[in-house]
Amino acid sequence: MRVATATLPAAKPRAVVVGGGWAGFGAAWNLSKTGGFGVTLVDGSPDPGGVAGKLGESSIELGVKGCWRHYGNIRRLLDNELELPVRDIYNDFSETAFYSKRGLEVVAPVFGELPRLPAPLGTLVYSLNKFTELPINERLTAFPLTQALLEFDLDEESYSAYDSLSFEALCKRAKVSDALYDTFLAPILLALLFVPPKDLSAAAALSVLSNYALSHQSDFDVQWPRVPPSEIFLKWKRLLEESRGAKFLNSTFVRRVLLSDNGKEVRGVEIDDGSGSTRELGAEVVVLAAGANAMPKIVTASGLESIRGLQRVHELSCSAVTATRFEIDGEPMPLRYPSNVWSTGGEVAGTFYDIGALRGGRPGVVLEVDTYNAADLLGLSDGDLESRGREVLSLENSAYGTSSGRVQATARVRNAALRWTPGSHGATPQLSPEGAPRGLLVAGDLVRNGPGDFGSHLGARGLSQEKSLVTGLRAGMVAAEAFLGKDASRLIKPPLHVEPDEPHISAAKAALTKARASGLLPNNLFIH
């Protein structure tokens, strides 16, 4: 007589996600989607989503972050999965103004509302009459950068070659005019990547210019948020907890990754919640989505610095950011444009916003000034930051310099974002670092940017929320396939790729590749 025996179900593999921004939440979202993982998200911040400073019920998010038209994954997530419609979270697309010491320099129109022309013709044609001071002959000096834009990411060799050069040096070799560089290129890159072009990898700069301005006519179009970022992350967290069974440990730091005796597998993390002692949290998967400041510390403490794919992360550095929010007394003083980029020369630049206009309040009452590459400003008092903020607002209207008002809140962050310096490409980790123990993955905007890692970033590059989300979602998919099998990973909807190159751009890249192979054109024209 056979005796029936019950087979106990295998315990779920456990996953720990380190970091609570777009990358961390994206990883937790896909890890939990199959129901096959027990997921815990650990974040040093008390609040989800990376809010930098709070005052009562209001908040300051460093560098008020918009949703660009090409952020397809964020749009799909909000509309279809979080049930937070983009139209409710973000304003309509709007113009962006650029200011220098001379005042208004150019206004970027909403390109997507204009008849579409082949890239980058639409961007150039529709901005012809938008510059107030910079003549057309100065703007045309950017034309020699065309070959660099076509070839910098044809392959890893080209990307690394352009990564070894600063964008400032590239512009000098291409004979871009000083006026165009100082008035437009340097400020926009500093605003997008938080690094002055003399310290910025040419490959990183070209990838951002391509993604945000030149690949497709409408790529520079942006919607600014109606609501604080916490509204997205609080809803997201609630869904993860209530519908997916995920756990959150906020105000908690991961000190190190724990490995098996042979060092070939992850077995958990050591965490510190500020109580004075540490404890272990078991896991078979660890996704490091903690950013370029925390990553090297965790790698070193874990004994992972000898691993080929992580041995240079200590070379990465971060840029500082300050934010100052004002409340104007008396009559409101609306900005002409609710979102603006500013530069007064030198190595700092930033953005300023009419928060009331963006968030459905009274325009001209609450304004915010953000400053990037701001390490030298971190030690300033609130009063000094207020004075500097008023100087910035005075670029738009000198009356802001003497207006009556008060500072609502300030924020200072020393290590706000990765600096894409020349040579940093080889130091950035891959999503699955070479030689890393099984179960260890990396997500976030520091994931390697080049064409060899397209499967990790899917074309979303730079310091973007879209790239952070995509790499987090991809990390979740990679872990699901590795630990649960392909059938389980098929339950996860793959992230969207960026829109492919337009046919004429693809044809130009193919012709350039053929010309380089036949010796008609040198490889990487501006590098030699």
TrEMBL record:
It comes from Chloropicon primus. Pfam families: Amino_oxidase (PF01593). Residues 23-393 form the Amine oxidase domain. PANTHER family: AMINE OXIDASE (PTHR42923:SF46), PROTOPORPHYRINOGEN OXIDASE (PTHR42923). GO terms for molecular function: oxidoreductase activity. This is Amine oxidase.
